[in-house]
């Protein structure tokens, strides 16, 4: 028997939504810059990594 997990990685989706919301709050749309550059970069890297893991897990399951 193979140990396969079926379903959607809901924890990663919750993390992506929270970090994405923080990223939007940190970004100033009038000047197109982050209010705090360091925090914005951390949010961006975390968001991209989380989305990449979600996509990779969906591709591997097929």
Molecular structure report:
- The chain contains 2 helices and 2 strands, in the order αββα.
- The chain has helices at 10-26, 37-60; strands at residues 27-28, 33-34.
- Strands 1-2 form a two-stranded antiparallel ribbon.
- It has 62 residues and is mostly helical.
- The chain has one domain (10-60).
- The chain crosses the membrane at residues 7-25, 37-55.
- Keywords: Membrane, Transmembrane, Transmembrane helix.
Determine the fraction of residues in helical runs and give it as a percent range: 55-70%
Shape: elongated
Question: In what order do the strands lie side by side in the largest sheet?
Answer: 1-2
How far the N terminus sits from the C terminus, by CA atoms, comes to: 17 Å
Keywords: Membrane, Transmembrane, Transmembrane helix
Transmembrane segments: 7-25, 37-55
Please give a handful of descriptors for the protein shown.
single chain, elongated, mainly alpha, transmembrane helix, 62 residues, two-stranded antiparallel sheet, 2 helices, transmembrane
Q: How would you briefly describe this protein structure?
A:
By secondary structure, the chain is mostly helical.
């Amino acid at each position: 028997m193979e140990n396969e997990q079926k379903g959607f990685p809901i924890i990663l989706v919750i993390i992506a939504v929270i970090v994405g919301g923080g990223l939007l709050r940190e970004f100033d749309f009038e000047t197109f810059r982050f209010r705090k550059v360091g925090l914005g970069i951390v949010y961006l890297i975390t968001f991209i990594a989380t989305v990449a893991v979600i996509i990779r897990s969906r591709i591997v399951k097929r």
